[in-house]
Amino acid sequence: MADVPLYQDLKVFSGNTHPDLAGAICSYLEMPLGEVDVFEFSNENIFVRFEENIRARDVFIVQTMSPPVNTRIMELFIMIDAATRASAGRITAVVPYYPYSRSDKKDQPRVPITARLIANFLEAAGADRLLTVDLHAGQIQGFFNIPVDELTARSILANYFKEKGIPNLTVVATDVGGAKGARRMADALDAPLAIVEKRRLGNDEKVEAMTIIGEVEGRTVLIVDDEVLTAGTLVTTAEVCHDHGATAVYATATHPIFAGDAVERIEKAPVRELVFTDTIPVPPEKKLPNFTQLSVAPLLGEAIRRIHTGQSVGALFNGR
Hints:
This protein is an alpha/beta fold. The protein is built from nine helices and 14 strands. It folds into two domains: 8-152 and 297-318, Rossmann fold (3-Layer(aba) Sandwich); 154-294, Rossmann fold, CATH 3.40.50.2020.
């Protein structure tokens, strides 16, 4: 029997965070972006109204998390609630960058696990499914009682560097925790792996690099991380590689957060090129000449198509 949609018509809507990404997803799917009105009243209360019928429809709401993050989170919750009350058949929250993902465990006394709290809120709002890209910590999937599809942009980034054909390349993980993802990138590029041992200093996002495990002297290095927040980790890793004799430093990450003076730090660092995706919108003033942005819209669009038609999302990565 041929695959048939599990629900009626597919509908994709966007919050206010990244309408360009939502539009690109719809272009891939060859369908129009859904019409929805999302705005704030003067008292900062958020209003949502779907401008078309979504009863029994398979609804996907695209809302990544960039400043103002807490406002964008509330927008998403209220959009999900509005879709629930409009009798949507199924609601999938498409959150390319998951918020509060660094707060994934109780690693200090009297602190919250906010990533779990966000999961609870999404379920309480009425989300039936989550679609996201490269979670900061894999255990976040376990915070949900609804299906979670975690995509990875690793193949998109790896293919970019394959096409560049950089010789004598070593992939560098920014810490031991990121070694697994860096190893997969190294395997994709048929390159050796090195790991920087680092220590994070308290909660002020400062990083002290300790040493490097592996050989980078006389080699071109590719630093791999899941996100660039303040760029402290990226810059410190680049400096350590440079100090250990690397001839050139490239870097790649899925999520370009670029908080605070991150861009200024990168501009002064020994980084030849930084490659990232469009899971988060980057304003023109934060784009340097050595920045390259790749789109995850085809990846998300194909995942949405497969979810809607009941096909395997995992087959995007394992060929099954």
